Amino acid sequence: MELSGQFSIGTGGKNIQFSGFLLGFYNQRFLESGDTDHSKNRFNLDFGVLRVQASNKSGLRSELQINVPAIYSPDQSDEFLMQATIDWRNRKNNFSASVGYDKLPFSSASMRPQMESAFLQRPEVVRGKTFNRRDMGITLEKGFLNRRLNLIGGIYTGQGIGSITGDNDENGKFLYVGRVEAHYPSRFRNEEIDLNHSPIPRFCIGADISYSEKTVTTGTDYPILTVDGKKTSYSADFSAAWRGLSYHFEWITFNIQPNNVSLLLGKPTDYYRAQGVISQLDYYSKRLKSVFALRYDEFNPNDLIKGDNRQTLSFAYNYLIDGLNSAIKVHYFYRMQANDAAEQWAPDQLRIGWQCTF
Amino acid sequence: MKSRIILITLGFISFCSFNPPLKPLWKHRLSVDEPSDLCQTSTANEFILLADKAFVYRMDQNGNILSKLDFTGYDLEAICADDQYYYISEETFKEIYQIRKSDFVLEKTIPIQHGGGRNEGIEAMVYFPDSKKFILATEKGPQTMMEMDQSMSLISTFSIEGISEVSAMTFYKNKWFVLSDEASTLYEVDLSTKKIKAQYWLPIINPEGISFTSEGKLLVVSDDMAKIFLFEIPVQ
Prior knowledge:
heterodimer, A: 358 residues, mainly beta, 16-stranded antiparallel beta barrel, 1 helix, 17 strands, 1% helix, 53% strand, B: 236 residues, four-stranded antiparallel beta sheet, 20 strands, 6% helix
């Protein structure tokens, strides 16, 4: 789905389109008694995105997408450049080749635009702390059976933001990603909310794999963004939608084979595993112009450490003033305490935002 | 407690329920992908079908492709016809191709002034032979109807209350039909008042094109499903 609100200029054989979106929110954390750090109670601008898309009649398309507030963010996962791609599609629109900086075709939940989600933040496992969601490289996509079966594959530098202008890792090896997805009875456009109230049930299953071998470990929250060693990631997802009700399930796992064996904590293994699960249900009521959503997500950053399971139950309510082009969103994060954990892994949180396209 | 859960569940199911959709008389898989619109030719039960995003085909009333025509566009979205010509909308580049009916040769390209996004060009077109006028429709954001004269000059713009998205239009036996793919709904619209007279919910994902057979049955093509459906419209 493409949010509306764009404007374009054409010269017959060429067309350029301008659009953008804004999303600001208020965030409130509910601290345990004794906690004194209230710094997360704040107003923030999550997105202030400008997007330019050009196309011509030979099938070439280019797109530049920047998120202005990210300039001021100390967090590397807040990316200023969201997309800079040139792609070519055949006339039948079932094959494309794309070159540039863009989201990786890994994890359905990561690929879905945040503005099209009922929630104001992605699940922990796909919010850019566990793998570089964007990278520089080449992506090929081939669709079969009216794009009900899609094969996507790509090769990338593997350094995330560092790939834009920087050098590769000193071993010069790349990141490889592949995805296969099957849809029935028609192609799923990776939408989270069934805004069209699909009159018959629709389903999609997908599976992804990515592989990289690097010499430097990075990652602020979790040291698995890139790994000094081998990192093999897998995910599988299932989505369904019918009459406004939509469901998404995803399982993601990262197998880390570090060169530094001390990271294995003396256990009799040559790898450890980080993994997560997402399960969510959305309902869109046309009558109430509202979306109600419930999501469970969990992330275990290291299966060698007991009790470090980060579980969150999220509740979302959206009031769609003009569809997703102008919407008020409320997202409550209820942090659950894992069985073996000494305490809740993070405080509960409430986020209220307004998004608008132009 | 148990009865409360049952009541809540039943309430939710009824909340999610709507009027039953029309039942198709039959449906077939098309041998081409992404059908975006269709239009009756001068031959009974023969249609022009826009499909595969950029290509044009001749098709019979059962959805069999008869031939591929020697014409290629980029993003062909809508087709209609007057006595002499077919008119095909090139959505992204906001142009109308005027093509001779006799030999399917491009006569001229007509630019359409509309500043919406590249997927918000002319999505649907219909010709009214009595008034010799066209109506061109943008899909959404906002949905706009453009009344044009026979030379495709703009006369006026308007919208229809209750229709926020349009994917196809046709005119059959003095009735104007408007299709919305996002609502999976076919509307019959009164020509003079521009008000909805009747509406039919279709059990189709992404219906993109409509036309009537010589026997008065409704043909609908679905872009995402790459299927053609035949319906009987109930008499009002």
